[in-house]
Amino acid sequence: MNYIYETMYILRPDIGDEAVEAAIEKYQNILKENGAEIIETQHRGKRRLAYEIAKQREGVYVQMNYQGDGSQVAPLERAMRLSTEVIRYMTVKQEVPKAEPEIETEPAEV
């Protein structure tokens, strides 16, 4: 059964634009190789962190939404954990909205 996942990760601010694009592509490829379908990737840019993480005050935020059976999350998070460019990441499984039965309404008589 497929679910929709959202992974938000923060890259170090001192890496260049090319390194940011390479990192985004690397993590997208990990997902694709493991059978996930990428729905959307948003490069949210450099933002100030709420608190200092690994001696960094800013970070480059990236959000990926993808669909898969869940087996894609572990290899992705392992690659992020071992990476020196990722300072924080989080994956959330999103609730898939259930199709609500349509209520038939009869036209009112005039």
From TrEMBL:
Q: What's this protein's family per the entry?
A: Belongs to the bacterial ribosomal protein bS6 family.
**Molecular function via GO:** small ribosomal subunit rRNA binding; structural constituent of ribosome
Task: Please list the coiled coil stretches.
Answer: none
Q: PANTHER family recorded for this chain?
A: MITOCHONDRIAL 28S RIBOSOMAL PROTEIN S6, SMALL RIBOSOMAL SUBUNIT PROTEIN BS6M
What are its GO biological-process terms?
A: translation
The family database entries (PROSITE patterns) matched by this protein are listed as:
RIBOSOMAL_S6 (PS01048)
Instruction: Tell me what this protein is called.
Output: Small ribosomal subunit protein bS6
- What does the function comment of this entry state? Binds together with bS18 to 16S ribosomal RNA.
For the keyword Methyltransferase, the answer is: no
Please name the source species. Phormidesmis priestleyi ULC007
Gene that specifies this protein: rpsF
User: Which Pfam families does the UniProt entry name for this protein?
Assistant: Ribosomal_S6
Gene Ontology cellular-component terms for this entry are: cytoplasm; ribonucleoprotein complex; ribosome
Q: Which UniProt keywords apply?
A: Ribonucleoprotein, Ribosomal protein, RNA-binding, rRNA-binding
